[in-house]
Amino acid sequence: MTSSAPAVPAWINSAANWLTPNRIRAQAFVLALCLWGVCAVDFATPSLFDRAGNIKFQDFLQFYISARLINQGRSSQLFDQRVADAEMRAIVREPNRVQLPTVYGPQVGLLFTPLARMSFPAAARIWAALSLLVVAACFYLLWATCPALRSQARTVAICAVAFPPLFHFFVRGQISALLLLCLSAAFLAFRADRNWLAGVALGCLVFKPQFLVAIPLVLLLAQAWKAFAGLALSAAGQLALTTLYFGANVMRAYFDTMLHVSRWVGLSEIGPAHIQMHSLRSFFTLLIPEPTIALALYVVTSIAAIAIAAAVWRSSATLAVRFSALILTSVLVNPHLFIYDLLILAPASLLLVDWVLRAKPAAAPTLLVLLYLSYLLPLFGPLSRWTHLQLSVLAFAALLWVLWRCSEIPIHRLAANQPAVV
Question: What is the pTM of this model?
Answer without folding.
Answer: 0.91
